[in-house]
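Chapter summary example.
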Amino acid sequence: MDWDHFRVFLAVARGGQLSAAARRLGVNHTTVARRLDALEAEFGAALFERRPSGCVLTEAGERLIPLAERMEMETRAALAAVSAGETEISGTVRVGAPDGLGNSFLARELGLFAEQHPGITVELVPLPVKFSVSRREADLVVELSRPTTGRLVATRLVDYTLGVYAAEGYVAKHGQPAGLDDLAGHRLVTSIDDYTYSSALDYAATLQVYSKRLYRCAGATSQFEAICAGAGIGVLHDFMALDAAGLVRILPELSFSRTYWLVGHPGATSIAAIAACRRFLVETFRRQRRHFQPLGTAKASSSPKNAEAGRDFQ
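The structure predicted for these 314 residues follows.
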């Protein structure tokens, strides 16, 4: 079997279109179609339903995905083994992460990793979306919850805390609420429900019970910038807020705790570049654990009443 045919098959499955696969592989549309036709002829079955909107896997195509992914991983591992005798590790590692963590922490830390391993190309994708390791959207992904399906390896990185913040300028202009009931006269900076990709991001609902004046922003980074600019009061990661000048902690009795998980494909452990990046991330988070809980153990709740009582919430 020709690996190039399988490589095209996976690119089409992941991109959903022949043109997207062609761009990803750096070949033309005709080459992708020809190799896909050859693979379907070899198996004697259609692997995709080719529609005007894109390509959808058939039942036969779905069954082929695990085999093609094993071939992909073994090919990458073989290339890594051949170059194992070289003086430095080489390859490309793509890391997906929530935008708040990615932009404010990983962008800096992975820069250090890139400095330590000049032969490795690091691709950091810090976006407020859920990444698929199985579809190879990233080699390593920092998730907000432990995966419950699929053949994946998950490592608990660190627990982190969040609190309620406002800019000093906002407080000077609008006053500082003494309790949750005082939020009624304040504008809240919150997320957009359509772009909330994880139930772990539901903490803003605690505040929205008390005020209907909302400024919605998709992603932790945009919410952080809006709050720093004085647009309103909102929930921020403590490790982001305490590093910023001009922010005031509001309602200090209200805090939230969440967990970051590092998720990867089990076969990737044989690829030196991915394994090295994984070790670096695990060690970095363990070394900087206090950075993610700067105010001590978090007290939080999913409901406003329990939040005021300070019960643990994860």
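To summarize the output: The radius of gyration is 23 Å.
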